[in-house]
Amino acid sequence: MSLSAFDYEMMALALREAAKGLYTTDPNPRVGCVLVKDGQIIASGYHQRAGEGHAEVNALKAAGDNARGADCYVTLEPCSHFGKTPPCADALIKAGVRRVVAAVKDPNPQVAGTGLSRIADAGIATESGCMETQAIALNAGFFKRMQKGIPLVRLKMAMSLDGRTALANGQSQWITGSEAREDVQALRARSSAVITGIGTVLADNPSLNVRSEMVEQQSPGGLRQPLRVVLDRQGRTTPDMKIVSPPGEVMIFTSPQGAVQLQAKNFPGNVSIRNVSIKGVDVTGQQGLLYILQDLAAKGCNEVLIEAGPELAGAFLEAGLVDELWIYQAGKLMGSDARASFLMGGFERMDQLPQLYLSDCRLMGNDLRLIYRLEEH
Question: Could you tell me the pTM of the whole model?
Answer without folding.
Answer: 0.92
